[in-house]
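Pipeline run #58 for the internal structure catalog. This entry was flagged by the ingest filter as a single-chain record with no existing model, so it goes straight to prediction. Upstream metadata was stripped on purpose; only the residue string is passed forward. Reviewer on rotation: M.T. Logging verbosity set to normal.
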Amino acid sequence: MGNGNADMVAFVRARLLDEEQVALGAGGDRWRCPADVPGEVHDRTGGVAFTVRGRGFDQHIALQNPARVLERIETNRVLLGEYVEVAGLDTDRPADDFRSGRAVGLGFAVRQLAAEYAGHPDYQARWLPRFIQ
């Protein structure tokens, strides 16, 4: 795997680990919004995790529950694993074969994952998605 691609993969893995630790610290639970108490977000024990008023914030917050975050992290790790297998072929001038095309396509997806953390001090602009044909 090219060094720049290895650095990008390591960066995304580290950010996913950060998020995983936060989600596990929050109990790893799935949250819900009971119909009889609008504005409340409950954890699995029925305890109130959040109380908000108006504009559907409760529904939005419930969708960001720790269990869902852990599921997203796992799917992103699978994508990273697929990319690592071909990342050395993800170059500015890829070859015209299937594996290279796969590498560039997966690379685009991984670059998008990295871009979710563009505000992080370790993010590098060279990881921006390439738009090549």
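catalog note: The chain has a mean pLDDT of 90.
catalog note: The beta strands are 40-42, 48-51.
status: ready for reviewer M.T.
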